[in-house]
């Protein structure tokens, strides 16, 4: 659907807030806290989390970091000016707040603050119990700092900066020291930040079902399956609907191999982050290299992200 960029505001070093309004005569679909949209910009499709309250029905707000190593999406987004018309998807949510949570710990690293701002607004408006912990390199790089330092978030938000003295930096073990049945953890940010938080949560005894994470980018090399050194051998994919078999050579993704045969799989990030290409596996063992599936979902081996993952068996049968 088409939206109009009505406002662009610098909220931190290299981070801008973009306000998107519906095209004339249309309305914006509702969304839930933690949702994201696909934005088509400069020939790219990128996922950005909505950072405003779900009660605001006439605007979507996204925060975008201009990355020096960007493949082009964030640079194109930062080049947009108010009045620009953009194509976006309807909101999707793979990072939702469960209604049964008695207390929520929101843990953000860098630009990972964006979906957690929407969560914090929703929890405040609905009377939910929560705390927010936000880590950045320095105050100048902390988006929405003015909001977090004033009511209603001032007494619930804790900000940490890498240039602070050691005693004032975040201690994951301390923040996550008391897991409880009704307590849920939400982590969003760079891969290294999330991995450190998840390790601390596991060491503290958090139940896996109470820990939720959303990556804002894949690691430089997506991880191979547990117990695998990474299978770089060629393999084959069979399409369940037709029985057609497609060869996947070394250096070519499943999505690319299928595309070369005229079979299109919906994709967006093509890094194993967004989940757009999630596909059921009917037979064979995937070599999971995404950062989207949980460890439990990977272990089940009944779904995979063919944009980046490969195979540990000579053949995969996919529900395509």
Automatic annotation (TrEMBL):
Residues 235-320 form the 2Fe-2S ferredoxin-type domain. Its EC number is 1.-.-.-. SUPFAM superfamilies: 2Fe-2S ferredoxin-like (SSF54292), Ferredoxin reductase-like, C-terminal NADP-linked domain (SSF52343), Riboflavin synthase domain-like (SSF63380). Transmembrane segments: none annotated. The keyword Oxidoreductase applies. Gene3D superfamilies: 3.10.20.30, Nucleotide-binding domain of ferredoxin-NADP reductase (FNR) module, Translation factors. One of its GO terms (molecular function) is oxidoreductase activity. CDD domains: fer2, PDR_like. Its cofactor is FMN. Pfam families: DmmA-like_N (PF22290), Fer2 (PF00111). It is an enzyme of class 1 (oxidoreductase). Keywords: 2Fe-2S, Flavoprotein, FMN, Iron, Iron-sulfur, Metal-binding, Oxidoreductase. Residues 1-98 form the FAD-binding FR-type domain. PANTHER family: CARNITINE MONOOXYGENASE REDUCTASE SUBUNIT, NADH OXIDOREDUCTASE HCR. This is PDR/VanB family oxidoreductase. It comes from Paraburkholderia kururiensis. The lineage of its organism: Bacteria, Pseudomonadati, Pseudomonadota, Betaproteobacteria, Burkholderiales.
